[in-house]
Design brief:
The chain is mainly alpha-helical. The chain has 9 helices and 2 strands, in the order H-H-E-E-H-H-H-H-H-H-H. A hairpin with a 6-residue loop joins strand 1 and strand 2.
């Protein structure tokens, strides 16, 4: 039995050695086999469209000679023409007016825009939603206005002074107070009340024109014709239908033309 086991072991060892030898021979054979050379792949060639043949540029068109027009001959100005021509009238056909007091030539002021409607009715301003103080003050102002129209500025002044006592924000009361002082010959007091009225009537062109016209009347009474004329012109710019400014401005121009230096 011992000999048999030894024979078996020896046979197994031979088989193992044979397998190892075969594996070694196969590995040597594979390593010795020639390998194909490595080459970088070449990208495929891209086909390009054939280039169009370059044509020479076309010849320039023949230059045309410009026809020269004869220059207009300027008319000769003769000394006789200058003597026969009258004074040049400004555009618009308006003759400049010369102020005798200033000695300067200027154009008469123009009225801008259409005449405004008459908003002088104070009773029409008493609407249902108006505060009671303003309504009472407006009624007193209307009474003072009627007294001024009737030629009683003293009584109108006492009535109008109550208007600003009842409602100190009533701008029409200040205007007619200024008018009452003007009628009484108190021109500086009138100008003071006009300044207050102007600040409160800045949104009402009709009444603002009345303020400037009355200011012009005060300046004219104080011997300031230039300031008076400027105030009248401002009144006409606000309301071209202001009769006080139109008549006073015409009167000033007539006085200036009749009193040359």
């Amino acid at each position: 039995m011992k000999n048999i086991s030894c024979s078996v072991n020896f046979f197994v060892q031979k088989i193992v050695l044979g397998v190892v030898a075969l594996g070694f021979v196969a590995a040597v054979t594979e390593s010795c086999a020639p390998r194909p050379p490595y080459r970088t792949p070449i990208p495929p060639a891209v086909s390009r469209p054939p280039e169009a043949p370059t044509l020479p540029p076309p010849p320039p068109p023949p230059a045309q000679e410009s026809v020269r027009q004869p220059l207009p001959q300027e008319s000769k100005i003769r000394e006789q023409d200058l003597k026969t021509k009258g004074p040049v009238t400004p555009p618009g056909g308006k003759e400049p007016s010369k102020d005798a007091n200033i000695g300067e030539t200027r154009t008469s002021p123009e009225a801008v825009g259409q005449p405004l409607p008459d908003y002088s009715s104070l009773l029409a301003k008493i609407t249902p939603g108006i505060p009671p103080q303003r309504a009472a003050s407006l009624r007193l102002t209307e009474e003072g206005r009627k007294l001024l129209d009737a030629g009683d500025p003293g009584k109108a002044l006492s009535r109008l002074e109550k208007t600003i006592v009842v409602d100190s924000t009533n701008p029409y009361g200040y205007f007619f107070l200024a008018k009452a002082h003007y009628r009484l010959g108190r021109y500086k007091e009138s100008l003071n009340f006009l300044d207050v009225a102007e600040s409160r009537l800045s949104e009402e062109p009709f009444w603002l024109a009345e303020v400037h016209a009355l200011r012009g009347e005060n300046f004219r009474a104080l011997g300031m014709p230039q300031k008076a004329e400027a105030s009248y012109a401002q009144a006409l710019r606000l309301n071209s239908g202001n009769r006080t400014a139109m008549e006073a401005l015409s009167r000033l121009q007539a006085e200036g033309s009749s009193n040359p230096r």
